[in-house]
Specification:
With 156 residues, the protein is of the alpha+beta class. 27% of the residues lie in helices and 36% in strands. It has a seven-stranded antiparallel beta sheet with strand order 1-7-6-5-4-3-2.
Length: 156
């Protein structure tokens, strides 16, 4: 039986280079990731951190960096007690030219059967990636509230 995973594919009217920049720039992620910033030097083996309101909410290590085609990092949730005990997971972004568009595939795996983290991720990524697509294509955000990140997972 295969392990639980989250996969999301979207097509964005942009270039692979602009999408790579959007995924790796703190200034850009702050716009579409509900105020969160990614922090790393994006070299294999370097630390990765996601910060929100000055707090590191998730951390990991860069596993793969092949600009502007593929980016992968480990991902360990730190903020909510209910999710801290879950194992380190992995996020993989695959960026492929598709005519005048870019096909972005996000794979998030490494979850345990029956764990809570997959549910949290499954609600968070669509909101984040919808904001990313809108910002790259129109320069505007969709107005999705930050609460969408936690829909289905309500931390106590």
């Amino acid at each position: 039986m295969s392990k639980p995973q989250f996969v999301y594919v979207t097509y964005i009217e942009t270039t692979p280079e602009k999408l790579w920049q959007a995924l790796t720039s703190s200034d850009f992620t702050r716009q579409y990731w509900f105020g969160a910033e990614v922090r790393s030097d994006w070299t294999i083996g370097s630390p990765f951190a996601l910060t929100l309101d000055g707090e590191i909410t998730d951390s990991g290590e860069i596993l793969e960096a092949d600009p502007p085609r593929r980016l992968s990092y480990s991902f360990k949730h730190l903020k909510y007690e209910e999710l801290r005990g879950e194992p380190v997971s992995r996020v993989v972004f695959t960026i492929e030219p598709f005519g005048s568009l870019v096909r972005l595939t996000v794979l998030h795996d490494g979850f345990v059967e029956g764990g809570k983290y997959l549910g949290a991720v499954s609600n968070g990524w669509p909101a984040i990636l919808s904001q990313l697509k809108s910002l790259l294509e129109t320069g505007k955000l969709l107005g999705i509230p930050r609460a969408a990140l936690n829909k289905g997972f309500e931390a106590k």
